[in-house]
Batch of 2 targets.
Target 1
Amino acid sequence: MCGIMGYLGTKPVAKIIIEGLKKHEYRGYDSAGLTVLDKGTFKKARAVGRVSNLEELVSKGDFSGTVGIGHTRWATHGGVTVENAHPHESSNGNVILVHNGIIENSRAIKEELQNLGVEFFTDTDTESAAQYLGYIYNGDPKSAIEKLVARIRGAFALVIMFRDKPDEIWVARKGSPLVLAHGVGETVCASDPV
Ligand code: GLU
């Protein structure tokens, strides 16, 4: 278990995600992380331990965007390290995502992509999804996510951002929970209705 969140709106996203992640901590919190997409750049902060450690890190940086995703991790694949904490980004920088669940065929996907020259940076199963999506993405999020969902096996809830789609957050789920809420000018998704 773990908690994932996404927010798309007009309010400063880092504070919203950190407050939301704190409410998800009961689901597991060996580490936590978030990404804000600001002027075409994914600004990423990740910390081992409680969400308050992430909060402290974020308070020292500039995370002023209004679109972002976040995660509290409960590791299944790969140790509890900053590198293994989510979000995970594709090597080509196209895609970044958070994941709740287990990708059972991650090793096969990783080997296939490594044979194609894709560099991996973590021991997580999640990175295989991020790298696969980044590798096949050609500007059409829906088609790329459909291919990803057809390729991965296991339980997943994914919240995904594409660098060239700064006004969009994409989600996919199978077997792991994810709720969506639409307000006036804002959309939130989360593992729990926090
Ligand atoms: N399997 C993923 C990992 O180990 C996600 C675990 C979770 O749901 O927190 O990073």
Target 2
Amino acid sequence: MMDRSEYIEFILDHYNNPRNHGEMQDPDILVNGGNPGCGDVVTMYVKVDEIDRVVDAMFEGHGCTISMAGASLITEMVKGKTLEEIQEMPYTPLIDQMGEDVVKSRLRCAILGMDTLKGGAREYPSRKATGQKLI
Ligand code: FES
């Protein structure tokens, strides 16, 4: 259990040193998301294996500290999960890692990356069937 300042430090570290940041070459999923309320945007990239399990996840975007930290964090959390598991993932583990108290008034920011990724995971089977990657 971390205290509030440690959660803030954790968030700032993800913002300043984003994990898995950049454009992925030849992704299986490329999905854009945004928060219309503020104009912040995120692009999530995923590569999956033959049983639709995530072998790599990356992101790019422009946004507030919490949205970018959340996107960075979720790229770490989804590795090894299947796309079905991602669709069913609750928000709580992400929120808890960022500190519920710190992000509770900014939930839409915190889950921007995760929600975008969930959308990509949901759409993937039908996109795969038609050979489309861009969502
Ligand atoms: Fe836009 Fe946080 S203020 S996602």
